[in-house]
Every structure is written in structure tokens, then in C-alpha cells.
């Protein structure tokens, strides 16, 4: 009996020691807190969907090279969370402007994601001289009817720039034979893509050996399409009210010079900053307009801004 009692006492004492040691190990010290914090952030491998396509043209994901390149872009864009959330926010604001123009011109809706990777849906400026959401070069803009100078640069007019992009893409599709190659040509040029196809004796984008930027181009577009179409699937959580809203505007026709846009803006109950915000194609504080051209200046509707 005494032996049993001693054994039970020893087991009890041993249990207390183990609990004490465990408690010390689990105490919220700086060191183990940081370890827990790191371990609580989990990064998962992603399942590449087997039915990905661009403009209805399937990606050959049975090809291991294509699968790896697609996996890379899904990972990069899923785990670049801050940028991803910004794309969701801006898409809510600008896709409703882009989508009907693509549809009117017979350009597949998927091309709106091309604008996302070109500029992040901002009026970006490239080192090469491209401007605006669609990153149009000066010569391309002028060739397609846009006014491009120091006073007025219509590459910053989203509606007009989208029309120019549509024209380019339709011509590229007719020349190159597929929407995928047309998209690639937006980055490398129609002549550039055509030359590479001939040199390498292939007929599709996915069979071409290309430089880093053009080689990733379609995969980035499709990755953004997949993520922006399935936010919950890729871990993005937001409410509709978290997204950016497009401020309603009305258009004022102007066919004369405007000497002072600050005074012009005040006539409509806004300030110069808001005038430029809604009309980024107006590049200077005045409008020359020696030719008496018709311009349409967008004015935000009353009540959407607090003017001091």
C-alpha cells in the first residue's frame, strides 16, 4: 500500500513539474510571441484552375512550362495583398466606363484586365513616354485622332483612350489571327510579334520564346482576371462600400479658349483641383483652342464634394 502511495505521489509531483515547465515555455515572452505571430501567418500553395482562358482562347495548361508560369503570376498577385485590394477598389470605379466601350467595338471584355496590368488603372507615365490608363504612346495617339500636346493630352481621357485601344486591338486581331496574340502585341507591337512568330516558325503566343516582359504579359492578365473575378477564393475580403465610387458628372461644351481654369471652375461651384481631377487631359491652367475645337469638360454633380 505504501509503495502504491509513494508511486502516486511521485507521478503527481512529476505531472506538476511537467505542467510548470510547459507553462514557462508558453508564457508570453517577446521571443515566443514573435514565433507565434509568424506561425499564425500561413501561406498556401494555390491550385491553378484547369479551365483558364483569355477571351475564350484556352491556355494549354497541360504544358508544364505554361502551368509553372501561370502558377507564378497567381502567387505573385494573390500575395501582393495591398496592390490586389487597390485593383478591386479601382475596378469598381473604372470598369463601368471601359466595359461598354469594349462591347460596342466588339472587343472581348477580358481586355479590361489588360488595362489593369498596363497602368494599375491609374494615369501612369512610363519612361518610354506612354501615358494614361491604356499607356498610349504619343505617335499612336496622334495616328488615331487624339490631340497630344502640352496644352491638351487626350491619352488621359479614359473614354477616348479606350476607343483608341479598341481600334489597335481589332487591327492586331485581324493581322495576327488571335486575341491572345493581339494582347501580346499591345506590349511588343504588331510587327514585333509577327516577326517573332516567323523567326521561330510557330503560330501561338504560348509557343514563342519571348523576353521577360512580353513573356509574362498574358499570364499576368489572366492572373488578374482570375483573382478579380473570384475575390473570396483568393482571400480578399471587402464590402461594396470599401470600393471606390465613380462620381457622377455632366459635360459642358467649350468651343473657345479658356484663359483661367480656376475662375472657370468656380463658375460651376468647384475648385481647380476638382476640375483637373475629372479632366486630367487638360494639362495646363488654361485652354488655347485657337482652332475653336469642341471640347467636353466634365463637371461633378453637386453634393458629392465638400468645397471650402
UniProtKB/TrEMBL annotation:
The lineage of its organism: Bacteria, Pseudomonadati, Bacteroidota, Flavobacteriia, Flavobacteriales. CDD domains: MltD-like (cd16894). This is Murein transglycosylase. Belongs to the transglycosylase Slt family. It holds the Pfam family SLT. It comes from Algibacter marinivivus. Residues 98-201 form the Transglycosylase SLT domain. InterPro entries: Lysozyme-like_dom_sf, Transglycosylase_SLT_dom_1.
Amino acid at each position: 500500500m505504501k509503495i502504491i502511495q509513494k508511486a502516486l505521489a511521485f507521478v503527481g509531483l512529476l505531472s506538476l513539474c511537467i505542467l510548470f515547465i510547459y507553462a514557462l515555455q508558453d508564457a508570453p515572452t517577446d521571443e515566443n510571441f514573435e514565433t507565434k505571430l509568424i506561425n499564425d501567418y500561413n501561406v498556401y500553395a494555390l491550385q491553378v484552375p484547369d479551365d483558364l482562358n483569355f477571351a475564350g482562347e484556352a491556355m494549354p495548361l497541360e504544358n508544364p512550362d505554361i502551368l509553372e508560369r501561370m502558377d507564378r503570376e497567381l502567387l505573385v498577385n494573390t500575395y501582393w495583398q495591398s496592390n490586389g485590394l487597390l485593383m478591386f477598389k479601382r475596378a469598381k470605379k473604372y470598369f463601368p466606363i471601359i466595359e461598354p466601350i469594349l462591347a460596342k467595338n466588339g472587343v472581348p471584355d477580358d481586355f479590361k484586365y489588360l488595362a489593369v496590368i498596363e497602368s494599375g488603372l491609374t494615369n501612369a507615365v512610363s519612361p518610354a513616354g506612354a501615358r494614361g490608363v491604356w499607356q498610349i504612346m504619343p505617335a499612336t495617339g496622334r495616328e488615331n485622332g487624339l490631340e497630344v500636346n502640352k496644352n491638351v493630352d487626350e491619352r488621359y481621357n479614359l473614354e477616348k483612350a479606350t476607343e483608341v485601344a479598341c481600334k489597335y486591338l481589332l487591327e492586331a486581331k485581324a493581322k495576327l489571327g488571335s486575341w491572345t496574340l493581339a494582347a501580346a502585341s499591345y506590349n511588343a507591337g504588331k510587327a514585333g510579334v509577327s516577326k517573332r512568330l516567323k523567326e521561330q516558325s510557330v503560330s501561338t503566343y504560348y509557343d514563342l520564346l519571348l523576353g521577360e516582359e512580353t513573356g509574362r504579359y498574358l499570364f499576368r492578365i489572366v492572373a488578374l482576371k482570375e483573382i478579380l473575378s473570384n475575390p473570396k477564393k483568393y482571400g480578399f475580403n471587402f464590402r461594396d462600400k470599401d470600393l471606390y465610387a465613380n462620381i457622377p458628372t455632366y459635360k459642358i461644351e467649350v468651343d473657345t479658349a479658356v484663359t483661367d481654369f480656376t475662375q472657370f471652375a468656380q463658375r460651376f461651384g468647384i475648385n481647380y483641383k476638382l476640375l483637373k481631377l475629372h479632366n486630367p487631359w487638360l494639362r495646363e491652367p488654361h485652354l488655347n483652342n485657337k482652332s475653336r475645337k469642341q471640347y467636353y469638360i466634365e463637371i461633378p454633380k453637386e453634393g458629392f464634394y465638400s468645397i471650402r
